[in-house]
Structures are given as structure tokens and as C-alpha cells.
Amino acid sequence: MSGAVLGADGLLRCPWGDSTDDYRVYHDTEWGVPVHGDDALFERIALEAFQSGLSWITILRRREGFRAAFAGFEIAEVAQFGPADVERLLQDESIIRNRAKIEATVANARAALELDGGLDPLIWRFAAEPGRPAPSTLADVPAVTPESTALAKELKKQGFRFVGPTTAYALMQACGLVNDHLVDCHAR
Fold first, then answer.
1. Left, alpha or beta for 86 (phi > 0: left; psi -120 to 50: alpha)?
2. Known catalytic residue: 56?
3. CB of 48 closer than 8 Å to CB of 174
4. Which residue of the set 26, 31, 147, 169 is catalytic?
5. Residues 147 and 171 sit within 8 Å (Cβ to Cβ)
6. Which residues contact 62 (CB under 8 A, 6 or more apart)?
7. Which of 122, 134, 152, 158 has the largest count of CB atoms under 10 Å?
8. In angstroms, rounded to a whole number, what is the distance separating the alpha carbons of residues 74 and 155?
9. Chain segment 76-118, per-residue pLDDT in tens
10. Beta-bridge partners for 12
């Protein structure tokens, strides 16, 4: 597997982070940066669920469409969506039109509203312990960890859908609960 690669700009990055301009910006400015706030984390949960079975670039390039379609991922707004909203979203070409994922996003907003203490503290309870060794190659980056399995289990217990251990780990990576930038990556 690959270690960090040298980009045209002279910076070493994780190989996936230098494959397209969209990935380069996302890798350098967002991926692995700590995300806090219930709505911000809800957005990431929703986007990771929509990504399931697809490439992340597909979601990344439609993110603004998702934000418009899902009321800026404001939990209280999305929790009010009803059957007519689901039908509207199924016609919206700016997002991935998958009924199960749309309905899961609405259900997840409702579950988030019911959380005692909010989404942010629930998710951040599962952050990796500091001092974890930095991965040297992509082969060193896991797809699932005990923490992501525990996070997925807790989210499901709270009524969330499309939050399996692999999706939970992708969320943890994207939101900075773990730092999986390769050891030589400039973003580490």
C-alpha cells in the first residue's frame, strides 16, 4: 500500500488526498479536523450514510445540494420532515435519491432531538486515546476499530440508522476523533 505522495504543490499527502482537486481541498482543510456542534455532526452522519456503497467524491461534489435539500442539516428542521418532504427529496437531482437513506436521515434527526445532552458529547465520548501511532501507509489505516464499533452500537441504541462500525469509523476520521493522516502527510 501507498505511503504519502508528493503533490504538484510540493506537499506530501495521503494518496487519496492528492487524486483530485476536490479531494485535495477536503483533505487539506477538513478531513481529520475536529468537528463540534450537534448540527455539524448530524450533517457528517447523514453524508457518511449517503456515502455507503458509493465513493466519497460523489457525496463531496453534491454536498451543497444536500445542504440545500436538508435545511442546512439543522436537526430541528429535518426532524419535522414528513412524507411529502421525502417524496420531494426523491425527485431532487442534487442529492443521492435513495429512499432508505433519506428516511434514515429524517429518523436520525428525530433521534438526535431525543438525546439527553446532545449529539456532540455522545459522539466525542468515543474519540481515540491520544498517542495512537500514526499510520505509515494506507494498509495501516483500519476500516473498523473497537471505538467505532462501540459508537455504532450506541447510535443504534439511540435510534439512529445507517451507522454501522465502518460508517462510524469514517465519521470518526472525517470529524477528527482519530487522526489517520499518514505519518509523512503535511496535514498530520
1. alpha
2. yes
3. yes
4. 26
5. no
6. 94, 95, 96
7. 152
8. 18
9. 999 999 999 999 999 999 999 999 999 999 999 999 999 999 9
10. 6
Helix (H) or strand (E) holding 58: helix 56-60
Query: What is the length of the chain?
Result: 188
Q: Which of 23, 31, 43, 48 is catalytic?
A: 48
The answer to whether 177 and 119 are in contact (CB under 8 A) is: no
26 in catalytic set:
yes
Which cell numbers in the block locate residue 186?
Answer: 503535511
- Burial string for 75-93 (b: 16+ CB within 10 Å, else e) reads beebbebeeebeeebeebe
Tell me, rounded to whole angstroms, the distance of Cα 60 from its chain centroid: 10
* CA distance readout (Å), 112 to 5, 46, 117: 39, 12, 10
Which of 28-37, 83-92, 128-137 has the lowest average pLDDT? 128-137
Q: pLDDT digit string (tens) for 60-78?
A: 999 999 999 999 999 999 9
Answer yes or no: pTM beyond 0.90.
Answer: yes
Provide DSSP, 78-125: HTT--HHHHHHHHT-TTS---HHHHHHHHHHHHHHHH-SS-HHHHHHT
With CA atoms as reference, report the closest residue to 14 among 34, 28, 33. Answer: 28
Active-site annotation holds for 48? yes
Cell numbers at residue 71, please? Answer: 435545511
Of 30, 56, 74, 124, which residue is the catalytic one? 56
